[in-house]
């Protein structure tokens, strides 16, 4: 009987040993999830292309503006943009000497020191006297045009006051342009999925017929504090870039207008115009690319066909 008892205890001890060893082995630690890494701006795709940057609603003097400015500065080492377009609201809450310094000259100092020009349009928060400021290159005018290279002409408009004199000037300049690429920029968007503002119907009634008649290729605007790439409307590409210093989170509603949208961070754009295509990247304040694409330039024949199509407008 005693031998049976001893044998029983020996058997139990042998069976429990592996269990104890298994319990003593600590579980392997889980590897932390890898965070998405920032991608460097892509280098230009064409050797003889025109390269520029876009910022909108930038002039706050906030840490967010400076963060976007740093990414804009760093991007130039790989994407050597030749100038910067400003979509308006360039100086919030004042336009004194300290405002120009804190909200423009200091955040973009390395770009200005490199001789890169900024071209501004006026927003609804801007003082009209900003057109006199030399570094905005408006030459005292509310609206103006310039030709950065053969085959490209850029038009800056004042969407705050779209009066007859400005419309007559625009018709005259578009007619005389003769450029392959016609680029227009101003503050208030003709098409938008924003819940706060949305599409500017009255401005669209004034400008869109002229854009269609004279073959405008792409339109950039700000005002909405987010990024939106619209689906082409009647053969014209539309972008909203109003988040270089302001942000309105969650303001984009779901409409049929949107090709790509971003309202959870600040941003700027890099644009390249080649012979037959527009290449772009939109980059946030952390240096991450949030949108990019190569968009073909529509031929004059294609534009005429699409000019009569019904636009996707979406709800207001």
Largest beta-sheet details: 7 strands, mixed
Described by the principal axes of the CA atoms, the overall outline is globular
- Domain unit count: 1
Helix segment tally:
7
SSE ordering: HEHEHHEEEHEHEEEEEEEH
For the terminal residues, how far apart are their CA atoms? 92 Å
CATH architecture: 4-Layer Sandwich
- The proportion of residues forming helix, as a percent range, comes to 25-40%
Q: In which order are the strands of the major sheet placed?
A: 4-5-6-7-9-8-10
Beta-sheet strand percentage? Answer: 15-25%
Q: Could you name the ranges where pLDDT drops below 50 across 5 or more consecutive residues? A: 1-37
Q: Based on helices, strands and strand pairing, what is the structural class?
A: alpha/beta
Question: What's the CATH H-level homologous superfamily?
Answer: Metallo-dependent phosphatases
The CATH topology: Purple Acid Phosphatase, chain A, domain 2
Rg, Å, rounded: 28 Å
Mean pLDDT: 87
What CATH first level would be assigned? Alpha Beta
Question: How many strands in all?
Answer: 13
Question: How would you portray this structure in words?
Answer:
The chain is of the alpha/beta class and 316 residues long. The chain contains 7 helices and 13 strands. A 7-stranded mixed sheet has the order 4-5-6-7-9-8-10, covered by helices on one side.
